[in-house]
Design goal:
Blueprint: H1 2-44, H2 48-55, H3 58-65, H4 72-104, E1 109-112, E2 115-118, E3 123-127, E4 132-135, E5 138-140, H5 145-159, H6 166-184, E6 192-193, H7 194-204, H8 208-212, H9 224-237, E7 247-252, E8 258-261, E9 267-276
Antiparallel strand pairs: 1-2, 2-3, 3-4, 4-5, 6-9, 7-9, 8-9
Helix pairs in contact: 1-2, 2-4, 4-5, 6-7, 6-9
């Protein structure tokens, strides 16, 4: 019985090895077929944005190089030319449509093409030449207004649609600042490098369970964009400082600086932070 089981197990492994490359080729062909079907659907509804993105992808190159799909190349080239022409012509309509999409999403967008802003701390730029939009340093491979607004809304949710208490925020900053001074045996008023402070502040946001098991799934992220927006919202709230009567001071510069938003709402390179009575 044991020999029979070992034989059958060996046969299963052997057949699996034979099947694996065949299945991989089959899966690859299926992905190509799905790609061509997607192009057909986009052409059917004249979705030249999606068509342009598809035909600039690596999969398009793979399909054109596939022996069984060589006749697609001429057709895809014609579609590529059409989509490219339509996107280029769309530049004239783009700003109007982007504004309309922003208004519908209730986003206060200001456009100075190719750049745009939505609230403090949300900035983007559009590059029609390479068909991409950059929003807060993250690239969206599209110039479709619908996709741009969807991405902007996602950023807004991350930065603004969170519980926020300006008094608790500034008190939390001061506590981290005080802890740093205590370690360095310094008194309030001493400046602390902003990069060092940002690191210590992010650490202060972590839960006890994170320090017991520093698994990345337990880490509470706090991006620089979030920090910049929270700082701006604190300035806007005009709470008058910490609960203990300490006033925040930040200084701009270039050495070991972080890009934050100052009390005037301007992006600046902030080098140090301090609190004084």
């Amino acid at each position: 019985m044991a020999n029979g089981e070992a034989f059958l197990e060996e046969m299963q492994e052997g057949l699996s090895e034979v099947l694996r490359p065949y299945q991989q080729r089959l899966n690859r062909r299926q992905r190509m077929a799905d790609f061509v079907r997607q192009c057909i659907r986009c052409a059917g509804r004249n979705d030249f944005f999606q068509l342009d993105e598809l035909l600039r992808s690596r999969m398009a190159d793979d399909v054109e190089a596939e022996t069984g799909l060589k006749t697609c190349k001429e057709l895809l080239d014609q579609l590529r030319g059409y989509a490219d022409e339509q996107v280029e012509l769309y530049r004239i309509q783009f700003i109007k449509d982007l504004k309309a999409q922003a208004k519908e999403a209730e986003l206060p967008m200001e456009i100075d093409f190719p750049r745009f802003t939505v609230l403090k701390g949300i900035e983007g730029s559009v590059d029609f030449t390479v068909r991409k939009t950059v929003i807060n340093n993250k690239t969206l491979k599209s110039v479709d207004p619908r996709r741009i607004i969807t991405a902007v809304r996602r950023v807004k949710q991350q930065l603004y649609d969170r519980p926020y208490d300006p008094q608790a925020f500034i008190d939390g900053l001061y506590q981290v600042y005080a802890d740093i001074l205590k370690k360095e045996q310094e008194k309030p008023g001493k400046t602390v490098p902003m990069q060092q402070f940002y690191l210590e502040y992010v650490i202060s946001l972590q839960s006890r369970s994170f320090f017991q098991d520093m698994d990345k799934g337990k880490f509470r992220g706090y991006s620089l964009d979030q920090f910049a927006v929270d700082l701006w919202r604190y300035f806007q709230a005009r709470t008058g400082g910490t609960s203990d009567g300490y006033a925040l001071q930040i200084r701009s510069g270039r050495s070991r600086a972080l890009w934050l938003i100052d009390s005037d709402g301007e992006r600046r390179q902030i080098t140090t932070i301090a609190f004084q009575k």
